[in-house]
Amino acid sequence: MINVLIADDEYKICELINNLIQWEKYHMKVVGIALDGLDAIAFLENNDVDVIITDIRMPGYDGLDLIQKGKQCNPDISFIIISGYSQFEYAQKAVRLGVIDYLQKPVNQHELELSLERIYQNHLEKEQEKALAHKYEQGYYINEKNQQKKFFIDFLTSSPENDIDYQEEKVNSRYGYSFQHGYYQLMLVRIDGFDYKNKKEIEYIYEKAARILKFLLSDTCYELGYTIMDNQLVFILNFSKEAASVMPKKYEELMEYIKAHKEATCSLPATFGISRPFLTLKASLSAYNEAKQAVYQRIVSGNYCIFDGSRQHKNPGFFLELLQRLILSLEAAVESLNREEVLQVINDLKPAIEQASLSGYEILQLAQAFLNAYILNMQKNKVHISNEDSFFLHFSEDIQNCSLLSEIISLLQQHIIRLFDEYCEEKRNAELRPIQTAKDYIKNHISEAITLKDICTEINFNEAYFSSMFKKETGMNFSKYLIHARIEAAKDLLKSSDEKIETIARNVGYNDLKTFNKNFSRYTGLKPSEYRRLYG
To answer: Can you name the residues that pair with 5 across neighbouring β-strands?
Structure first.
């Protein structure tokens, strides 16, 4: 038997949970009730406990503390959190600590039973794995769940090698399904609003939704299976010809259930993408792509909707015309080095897309093509793109998780402005390079007679153009900068050496001491001797 401890600071809640469930059905029994966290820990230290159902907030230790302490006592304990708090932050913390489920008060019997069923199945699988491990040379047991997951990898990421592999009996034997001759359909469930880089969070949220949807669909289907792929929940449904006519209504009922019981998706918005029905598993891959593209329609129409593959393509000619127009506008803005104009071109994307009435899939394709064309333009201008190999890949991954047009525009801005700023920096550095070369030449030849012609010969620039550029960047003309550089060098020598002032004057390019003294006093307000006395 699986031993259960119920912990809640309200005794009535403990009694309600105890009396709500037919525990024998799940091979479980309630072995204790604790009214605060301290009692729960004390009970746990002196008794064998497999499952703890606990409130999130209690005196002594709260639910999250209890999980941490409980895991120290027994890492295999399964936890179910029951709370009056609906904030997703609590669920996130609970997921990180490894809870099986996070349910809201008042306790829903059906939700709790689904959680207990999952715990029982996990317990059963562990027992089966232990019992059957020695039968396999590899030393581990590939359970039914892993076999069925492999089906999705084999059928939805590539095509099997021959037609025999598509036959139901072959598939059933190989992957542990019970498919029958009839219709198939792919249903994708996309949940938005959480961190898609947190794999543990993804699994928790989608597994919770999957258990509920599977229960609600089971009476209509011969067979169904699911897995998590590409940050979404993927169902394959197998049903009779008669059931095919009622499936659209069934999907509507599922969405209404999700809307009414938002805790099923941790109060996060969901979207369904449905493929057209198909007769052979050979069509699984194309059906998957169709359903995946249908999910993108939430970008246009919002969440809590059901989309099929009928609104994926509009007018390819118009699409290309719009893309070309946008790229030309962006290239002109980049050429003028106007950051605000670049931002405006990207912001103008939103009304242009809305006016064009593009589908969600077309919007996604447009954004990717738009950025790709911009990257090619940067490469044409010989702009170095840091992490070039991963730049577009990361953008393509991030855009898949955008559920709003505004999010796509923001993502484009982020990536395009990053490249634009790098382009401007490189262009400015290229313009400043001859200025810096001139400054370095003056510094290294400070004791010599230096003319503008000498500098321009050194950097291979036209004298008039360089003189104008030099004044623009330094704020002074070349002759004034040269005097400034000589006086700065003299100041350093006056502070750091005991050489005669006449010698210092020669070392910074003055053969005439009178001219040196005159220029030094004009720039510093002090005679060289006074400067040495104050700062030397």
So the answer is: 32, 52
Token pair 């089971």 is at which residue?
A: 218
Euclidean distance between CA atoms 193 and 92, whole angstroms: 12
**3 state DSSP class of 227:** strand
Distance (Å) of CA 254 to CA 46, 129, 193: 44, 34, 20
Q: Report strand pairing: 270-274 vs 101-104.
A: unpaired
Q: What is the CA angle 495-499-504, rounded to 5?
A: 80
**Phi and psi (nearest 5°) for 525?**
80, 5
Judge whether 88 and 266 are in contact, CB under 8 Å: yes
Q: What is the pLDDT of residues 329-355, one digit of tens each?
A: 888 888 778 888 888 888 888 888 888
**Checking DSSP bridges between strand 78-83 and strand 101-104, what pairing results, if any?**
parallel
Task: Dig out the tokens for 204 from the structure.
Answer: 């928790």
Buried-state track 96-122, b at ≥16 Cβ within 10 A, e below 16: ebebbbbbbeebbeebbbbbbebbbee
Handedness of CA 427, 429, 432, 433 (dihedral sign): negative
Q: Do the strands 183-191 and 270-274 form a parallel or antiparallel pair, or are they unpaired?
A: antiparallel
User: Coil, strand, or helix at residue 187?
Assistant: strand
468-492, pLDDT tens digit by residue?
888 888 889 999 999 999 999 999 9
CA distances from 16 to 29, 52, 62 (A): 15, 15, 20
Q: 298, 396, 292, 300: which is closest to 350 by C-alpha?
A: 300
For residues 223 and 153, what is the distance between their CA atoms, to the nearest angstrom? Answer: 18
Amino acid at 55: D
Report the interhelical angle of 144-156 vs 168-175 (nearest 10°): 130
Q: What pLDDT does 85 receive?
A: 64
The region that residue 267 occupies, defined by phi over 0 for left and psi between -120 and 50 for alpha, beta otherwise, is: left
Q: Which amino acid is at 401?
A: N
Distance, CA of 465 to CA of 57 (rounded, Å): 74
Per-residue confidence at 134, pLDDT binned at 50, 70, 90? very low
CB-based contacts of 6, cutoff 8 Å, min separation 6: 14, 17, 18, 30, 32, 33, 34, 52, 53, 54
Look at the chain and count its residues. 536
Instruction: Choose the most confident range, by mean pLDDT, from 90-94, 303-307, 332-336.
Output: 303-307
- What H or E segment, with its residue span, contains residue 367? helix 360-380
User: Per-residue pLDDT averaged across 156-173, rounded?
Assistant: 76
Residues 188 and 82: beta-carbon distance below 8 Å = no
Residue whose entry in the numeric block shows the structure tokens 């490249």: 419
CA 167/CA 180 separation, integer angstroms: 10
Predicted structure pTM score: 0.62
CA distances from 20 to 15, 101, 431 (A): 8, 17, 77
